[in-house]
Design a protein that fits this description.
Layout lengths: L9 E4 L2 E4 L30 H7 L7 H6 L14 H15 L3
Antiparallel strand pairs: 1-2
Amino acid sequence: MTVNYITIKGFIKDGELNIDLPENVIDGEIEVKLPVIGAEIPWEDRPWTEEELEELLHPDPKTGAEIAKSTSIGAWAHLGIEDGVGWVQEQRRKRQEKNRW
């Protein structure tokens, strides 16, 4: 199916959409998408841009050595957590004690 687009300008006032259609618009079913200019769309509801999609299609994998050198490893050290496994086990134990009947 071929989709053709036209650009129209209009405005919304008192809950009504007011537009002027060009003379050459033919009869038929349409789908209307309205971007709200000036309104902030929550991050999780924003559509992906072509640039973001293109970036996702070209991953930048790291080697084990690069990961080990990364500042992401041990990023929780500033919280005084020296043993990640021990910390998780302690959190589970505390949660079990708190949720006892």
